[in-house]
Amino acid sequence: xxxxxxxxxxxxxxxxxxxxxxxxxxxxxxxxxxxxxxxxxxxxxxxxxxxxxxxxxxxxxxxxxxxxxxxxxxxxxxxxxxxxxxxxxxxxxxxxxxxxxxxxxxxxxxxxxxxxxxxxxxxxxxxxxxxxxxxxxxxxxxxxxxxxxxxxxxxxxxxxxxxxxxxxxxxxxxxxxxxxxxxxxxxxxxxxxxxxxxxxxxxxxxxxxxxxxxxxxxxxxxxxxxxxxxxxxxxxxxxxxxxxxxxxxxxxxxxxxxxxxxxxxxxxxxxxxxxxxxxxxxxxxxxxxxxxxxxxxxxxxxxxxxxxxxxxxxxxxxxxxxxxxxxxxxxxxxxxxxxxxxxxxxxxxxxxxxxxxxxxxxxxxxxxxxxxxxxxxxxxxxxxxxxxxxxxxxxxxxxxxxxxxxxxxxxxxxxxxxxxxxxxxxxxxxxxxxxxxxxxxxxxxxxxxxxxxxxxxxxxxxxxxxxxxxxxxxxxxxxxxxxxxxxxxxxxxxxxxxxxxxxxxxxxxxxxxxxxxxxxxxxxxxxxxxxxxxxxxxxxxxxxxxxx
Length: 548
Prior knowledge:
Radius of gyration: 27 Å
CATH class of the largest domain: Alpha Beta
Number of helices: 21
Strand content: 5-15%
CATH architecture of the largest domain: 2-Layer Sandwich
Helix content: 40-55%
Oligomer: single chain
């Protein structure tokens, strides 16, 4: 039986405002109900190194501070964040790795303010000569160095219902003794995005698995006695979008042995998509958002820009457009077994008739040069291929170009021309989202790849973008990427794998482009029902010809 009388961590109580499941796992000591979380800093936490940099800055400015004080109040406990001595008072400050004062950070600040208010004597004991009171406000320090003030009275009003709900859960012995499945089903407030929720979603067939359903819509479905994705797909309540219902049925109908696909070949974005032609390039950037964090710069380092370029209208070994698994209604296309994609950088690009070009940067000066070299390379290609286009997947690549230009104050006109509505850049994700429905549960590039990558499916080394950030950031923090530093064999191997990851994304984007063009040759087909347009039957995707 869990001990409901133990002290509750104020951080866990604060998170419970958005995710009761996380608190339940904490209270029941179910630490194993958690997926790997390699990218936790997106929630705002600073590392110990960054905290010390900030502390040194405050010391240099003559601000007396105290941090990491263990405080308790009733049944709550926690380590207080920064306490600054300013204007003869203690100012509670919560530094965050974020651009805005997120609601979860405000909840956490409210909990710390509650603890600090109940532990005034602790503050005076640390610096007995100061004998100061808490300031009537607490602060969140944002990544750009700005602070947002919150009155203590308002924070206490915010905290009271959060703490009350957490205490109710902590005192519910029936819930704390329930199985994980029963507890998940009973809890109304789950975020669906933390590492604890990631573990539970698939195991309990939660509606949050359905692309397009968030926590708010989940609560609405629970009010309709819909607790699983299967229930929603099988018996959806009135009033929900046909598109959402169709998406749910696709995902629920899919099994590990097949893929489900719906295509609208008449979607305007798909109809307007240009066919591949000589000169086209496929672009992907890699950004280390953990690099070089300062109070004025929190956007990281764009350390690699990769391009796969096609100088001719041919398709290499023509091994594309083969699904990794059978697609329902497309029995003419056999599934391809997975093999190692490539051993050397550039190998996969050559197989599909292209060439991989990379631009690296390991510091701000090199990042500036990366933009110069990349745009110069593209300008040279425009002279050779005036009609060429630049394809990418997701709006992020456009944002990175804008960031490079604005950060370094150069080539604004050239970047603006690339990004113009009538410019050469095309986002294939927009085409996918308008014309394609799958049972994959999402529409990331990785989730689309089983439909066309075939034997070239990702290996484990190329599987996760967040992992690649961690790999690069680890190398950067070791100092092995500094000018003149000697690169050990194992570090060089990590850089090679990062290049392979980038090249793979570029090649995948190119193969997706060809696959999307092939979809225009298919009748509109429902993979859920197996029905097609009355006047046409489903046809297999043809192999790409030598020239498109």
